[in-house]
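Lecture notes, unit on protein representations.

Consider one protein chain, 239 amino acids long.
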Amino acid sequence: MLSIHRLLPLLFCFSLFAGTSASATADGPDYYAVTGVANNDVLNIRTIPSASGTLIGAIPPDGDGIANLGCVGGVTYEEWVDATEEERAESVKTRWCRVGYDRTIGWVAGWFLTEGSGEDQFRAGGRLSDIAGSEWQVRDFAGELSKADAWISFKSDNAVVGSGGCNNFNGTYEADQGPGLFGPIASTRKMCPDPEMQTEMRLFQVLGDAQEMVAFHLVMALFDNNGAMLATFERSDPD
C-alpha cells in the first residue's frame, strides 16, 4: 500500500480538481516512480483522469523515470493541514496525474506514484517553448492508430498547413492556449477511400476541440477542455 506520509511532500503542490476542467498543475518532482502495484500488474495510462478512460499504454510495476506533466485532484495545503487522517487517505484516491512514459502522454492514478529517482523513460526530448517551425505526423487518436498519412506543420506567422490524409488544409493557431486553440480550417475537397476520409474527419474534429497542447521535441499531444487526450503526434522533422 502507498504510504500517506510518503506522499505528503507531493500533495502540498497539487491543485484542487474543480468542476469539469482538468487543468494540471506541474509542480512536484520532475519524475515519478510506480509504487503499490503488484508484480504481476501494470499502472494503466488512460485518455482522461478517470478509471473510465480508454487505455492507451501501461507502465510496469517497477517503472521509474516517469515524466511529471501535472496533476489534478487531491487537496490544497490548507485543507491538508486541517484534514483528519481518514480525509487525507481519501483525498489521495482522487488524484490523477498526467505523465509521459515511453513517448506516450496520458493520465494515471496518482495514488500509485511516488517521487522517482531513475533516468528519464519518457524519451521525448525537452519541452518545446515554441511550436513554430515544427512538423508533426498524426500517430493516434486517443490510442487508436491513424489509418492514413496525416500531418500538420506550424508556421512562424501562426499559420498551420497540413494534410488530413486525403485533402490539404490550412488555418491558424494561437500561441496562447485556451478556447479556439486552432482557428477555422479550410481544405480542398477531393474524395478518397474510407480510411483516409475517416482519418481526415477525425483530425479536423480534434483541431476543433483542442484547447491545450503539450509538446516535446519528439512528441505532441492535444487535449480538450476536460483534459481528455484527443490525439498524439510524432515529430517528422526532429532535426
